[in-house]
Design brief:
Layout: H1 10-16, E1 21-27, E2 32-41, H2 46-59, E3 62-73, H3 75-90, E4 94-98, H4 102-111, H5 113-116, E5 118-120, H6 122-125, H7 129-138
Parallel strand pairs: 2-3, 3-4, 4-5
Antiparallel strand pairs: 1-2
Helix pairs in contact: 2-3
Length: 144
């Protein structure tokens, strides 16, 4: 009887790779910037978030953080978001969260972040981002 050693399949190798994270920033031309997050946001992906938020806050009076495509968030990421909110408040600016779904929203609820930050519902973000930011500019409040 011969022994055969099998190498791991491509699927097994790809499942061992770290989860993906994407962080992008888009200005609307009216002093507002939307930071879009997708994938898993944790300690290993915080540098990208910090950098993007700093860049977004340099020239914007309103920064929205779109969490709709985020699949995971940990407490270290919440701390960075709270710090960015503090920067915005000290400068007389605003930071707004577009709520995510599932596990991400549950973490926001359990930690009390929804009561500490300005939040808009995902339904508002289904329209163009400019409309969401316009609602934020004129003070349309979202129910938490």
């Amino acid at each position: 009887m011969s022994r055969v050693s099998l190498s791991p399949s491509t699927a097994a190798r790809s499942s061992a790779l770290p989860p993906t994270f994407a962080c992008s920033c888009k200005a609307d031309g009216f002093g507002s910037v939307c930071v879009h997050l997708a994938g898993e946001l944790d300690l290993s992906t915080l540098p990208a978030l910090r950098h993007t938020l700093r860049e977004a806050q340099l020239g914007a009076s309103i920064v929205s953080i779109d969490l709709q495509e985020l699949t995971f968030i940990d407490c270290s990421a919440l701390k960075v978001i709270l710090e960015a909110d503090g920067v915005a408040q000290r400068a007389g600016n605003r930071l707004i969260l577009v709520r995510g779904a599932g596990q991400v929203d549950r973490v926001l609820k359990l930690t009390g972040i929804l009561e500490q930050l300005e939040v808009v519902e995902p339904q508002m973000a289904e329209t163009p981002k400019e409309t969401t930011l316009h609602h934020a500019r004129i003070g349309v409040a979202a129910s938490s």
